[in-house]
Amino acid sequence: MVTTLSSREFNQDTGKAKKASEAGPVVITDRGKPAHVLMTFSDYQRVVGKRKNILDLVGMKGAGHIEFEPAKIISLSKPIGDSL
């Protein structure tokens, strides 16, 4: 079920909008035109899907909390001429 609220209605009663989002998306309008959509976070995750990060892809569950600060690369090239 889709609920539509004006920006004014949304600003006056955000609790109503949050409760309505439990039943489905809430379309918030500006000057009568749809401008925003409010939905629960679980609905949002379902819509966008779970995105994998590189740690998931290499199978290192829980490794997201490892501190890692690589050394700064100063130069990737060598001077020409002096090395011969």
UniProtKB/TrEMBL annotation:
Give the matching Pfam families.
PhdYeFM_antitox
UniProt biased composition (Polar residues)? 1-14
Give the span(s) annotated as Disordered: 1-26
Q: Which family does it belong to?
A: Belongs to the phD/YefM antitoxin family.
Task of the protein:
Antitoxin component of a type II toxin-antitoxin (TA) system.
State the protein's name. Answer: Antitoxin
Q: What is the lineage of its organism?
A: Bacteria, Pseudomonadati, Pseudomonadota, Betaproteobacteria, Burkholderiales
